[in-house]
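fwd from M.: "can u put these together and see what the complex looks like"

so here's what she sent:
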Amino acid sequence: MAGQTIIPAGDFRTSYAADTTVFPTTTSRNAMIAGIALTCVAPHVVNEYVLSLLIQIGIFGIAALGLNIVVGFTGQISIGHAAFFGFGAFTSAYLSNRFGIPVFFCIPLAGVVTAAVGLVFGLPAARLKGLYLAIATLAAQYILLDFFARAEWFTGGSVPASAEPFSIFGYMLRGDKQYFYVVLAYVVVCYLLVTNLIRSRDGRALVAVRDHYLSAEIMGINLTKYRTLSFGLAAFFAGVGGALYAHYNQVVSNEGFGIDRSIIFLAMIIIGGLGSIMGTLMGTAFMVLLPESMEWLSVALRDSPIDQFLGLKNNIAFLREMAIGLIIIIFLVFEPDGLAHRWRQIKAYWKLYPFSH
Amino acid sequence: MNTQLLIQLLVNGLVVGTLYGVVAMSFVLIYKATQVVNFAQGELLLVGAWVCWWLLTKYQVPFYLGMPITLVFMFLFGIAIQIVILRPMIGEPIISVIMVTIALSTVFSALMKWMFGVNLQPFPRIFQTQNVNILGLQVQTVYLMSLAVSVAMMVGMAWFFRLSKYGLAMRATAFNQQVAQSLGISVKSVFAMAWAISATVSAVAGVVVAVVNGVSAGLSAYGVKVFPAAILGGLDSVGGAVLGGIIIGLLENVAHFLDSEYLHWGNLYEIAPFYALIIILMIKPYGLFGTKDIERV
């Protein structure tokens, strides 16, 4: 029902197209466009530090989106997402260094290569489910990490691989300000892609596999195909995110792709909301800002009794780790549907105000 | 071929393998009784080892006192985790339960690092003699102790499940919760008890490892090695877990031998169990002794 500015009370959708439309009203579409336009202005308004946080949210948001396809939409468990993220980073650096492919093409190419690797590790998903799959992905995490350490031709081994800065048609982008737009473009494209994927036949098949795999199979959905496919898709977005990460830092080391990073990715989608696309971005923002806000707190509390008791300065890293774990537990126990659900409730509250029903 | 090294490594493998077996056994215990895959098993080891170390060094408690105190603490600790964290998760989807245990492992490992630091701490000496000579082979006393403790734990576990009333109740619950409940078994207390016993047994293993190698955050690696062991043996078979643990321990050391003598790839020791894990999952996901009722797709 495009053309409407507000949703009428009650459900008046009469066609399938109206039911699956991305923007139910023109207001929501305009709000989204305005939001993106506003984000475009951001690099000129905010300082370097905030800009780097925004870039991180974008990069991790793309990777977390991939994980949400596997976990949130297809209902499979993957504890090895960070390894794919790292694979994408190394692949992109390798392609641009070894073959001299422009970085512009390297990033999607890295996504494709990582997707191929994801399909290989997704093969157990064709046969296993639930916790067996979780354990298989855990093994994948360790095997890939070992591969990074071993394959010196590919990753540089103990010496970090360097990644070239992003360039487009010979024009080299310099600094965070310009790179921000690259990340923003990828975020918009990836989120639009996944939104449309979920509306398509394949997306519905993935959701059907999650909701009831037996019914899905009876209705003619090829379980093996869609389970493996979801792993491939997840790896694709992890690869794209990793490639963006590589060219952002311009150096890729073995660090930071371990199981703890995988847990953070899982935390992002759990906090954002499993099976919610915008929730993924919210959860990512939450998880990127959480350690930073703890940093601010520790600075604010310096030399206070709390600081002396906790020893904040030396122990902030451990406290941060603990906070991540605690946040996951708190969300799982009290808000299993994540921030997206809370956001919907807030919206509903304002929409219906002052009549709550 | 370096026979001396091979024998040494096989002995190592056996000792480490029995420890893996003990940890895998306690992992399987939780899985069997409560259907929870515990990703925080390694951290239970870690907590037990640190508590014991703390009692022994800070308060100068003698070992024969410190150990029982540790075990009692871990028993209560296991019950507390079950009641506070995992009881609300009953009936939630499997991903939530797995995530909770992963989060628990993050919390505990960070908490331990915060409280005790990241450095390796040597454990107070417990035995006077360092080495014992067996058939011409120098064997460290702690290794013998480790082996003896592991076997004792396994025998104790077998006795508990076969002959004790509580063990029977636990097996009944694992078999069918509703039927067990209708026969007057408190499923709630069985769940709590499973966690308590698992935590205690893990703590014993943790202290043993700590006596051999010292205490550090690296202890929780045993929790990750549990997966190859438990999957190999079959996720719901206690005996299988023990055997799986021993096989994985031997496999690690054989891989290490091949690596150092012939292949020179490096780090094969660490990674071989995971390759084995993937292969087992592909060809025989229910393991050697597991129930074959996994829904195959």
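replying to her w this: The beta strands of chain B are 131-134, 137-140.
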